[in-house]
Design a protein that fits this description.
single chain, alpha+beta, Phosphorylase Kinase, domain 1, Transferase(Phosphotransferase), domain 1, 2 domains, 5-stranded antiparallel β-sheet, 3-stranded antiparallel β-sheet, 11 helices
């Protein structure tokens, strides 16, 4: 039996901002100067900053130094550090302030896809344009043996022209050296095998990523989620969650009333949103599908990925030293 309470705890904290309560970790910093707050989550916040050395705008994710789960932060940093792709937000460096671990990243001025879809209606061709870019990113991450495990509208960003999609946030990512055995993600995007996972079992993070891509494609096509129903809003929270979970597990979705998509598009969605992960399309299946391949840019299928240049890149040893310092500070406070 699915534990509805455990699924409910995965609902993310609102990204609304409260200027009066967010600190400024960059006050007096020699290189970075805060411009404004960008978002607030359950454990930290993201701000826009100016790099005084380069003049570039950067995004900085700030996590409290006393926050538990340093292994999770280490995994995020080491996984993100090795990625170098046009459709993945670039990691720059990590540094410590008196109270925060600060992760410096590429800034995407267009904001996230959730905001974009709130203001724009995409045609089927428009949805395909962004979906192709999402698959470029996910295919690359899987090639690098990394599963993101939290692909969603809020974790896909757009450039200033709203043309280039970039995958971000590797806080829940896993590489192939570590098994996926924790129920993580966001309820509307959870793959059935994560919901149904018995205690002590594992799942394939890459196949779960593909499921999330299918949910995102549906959202881009119809501006709604495949397993959400408007009538659930009138139900108590627990009952609404139970119905959502039941539909996900059974892969019960349909094209919304009054909406139309091509048969090829529906065929692709059907292949992705399969409850049995062994029957679900892989990324390699997707890139061979006729709907995906339509209007594909030249060389888009190229998988000759160059390695990330190490010159100027913060070393793994430097990152590990900083995280150890943050952990030591936490241990000192706990022992006091």
């Amino acid at each position: 039996m699915v534990d509805v309470e455990s699924i409910s705890r995965l609902i993310p904290t609102s990204l609304s901002l409260n200027e009066d309560t967010l600190p400024n970790p960059l006050a007096g910093h020699g290189r970075y100067e805060k411009v404004k707050d960008l978002g607030k989550g359950s454990h930290g916040f993201v701000l826009l900053a100016n790099d005084k050395c380069t003049g570039e705008r950067v995004a900085i994710k700030c996590l409290p130094r006393g926050l538990g789960g340093i292994e999770k932060v280490k995994r995020e940093l080491l996984n993100h550090r090795q990625l170098w792709h046009a459709h993945v937000i670039q990691f720059y460096e990590v540094f410590l302030t008196a109270h925060h671990v600060c992760i410096v990243m590429e800034y995407a001025a267009g904001g996230h896809m959730w905001s974009y879809l709130s203001a724009n209606v995409l045609s089927e061709d428009g949805a395909r344009f962004f979906f192709q870019q999402l698959i470029f990113a996910v295919r690359y991450c899987h090639h690098m043996k990394i599963s993101n495990r939290d692909i969603k509208l809020e974790n896909t960003l757009l450039d200033a022209d709203n043309k280039v999609l970039k995958l971000c946030d590797f806080g829940l990512s896993k590489d192939e050296s570590s098994e996926c055995k924790t129920r993580v993600g966001t309820p509307n995007y959870l793959a059935p095998e994560i919901i149904n996972m018995p205690k002590g079992a594992t799942y394939d993070g890459k196949r779960a990523d593909v499921w999330c891509c299918g949910v995102m494609l549906y959202a881009m096509l119809f501006r709604s989620f495949p397993f959400h129903r408007p009538e659930d809003r009138d139900l108590p929270k627990k009952d609404a969650m139970r119905k959502l979970i039941d539909r996900i597990v059974k892969a019960e979705w349909s094209v919304p009333a009054g909406a139309t998509i091509s048969e090829d598009c529906k065929d692709l969605l059907t292949g992705i949103l399969q409850s049995d992960p062994s029957k679900r399309m892989t990324v390699e299946d997707i890139v061979q599908h006729p709907w995906y391949k339509s209007s594909l840019p030249d060389r888009a299928g190229n998988t000759d990925y160059p390695p990330r240049p190490e010159e100027g890149l913060q070393s793994v040893s430097s990152i590990m030293e900083l995280l150890q310092q943050a952990m030591n500070d936490f241990d000192d406070v706990a022992a006091a």
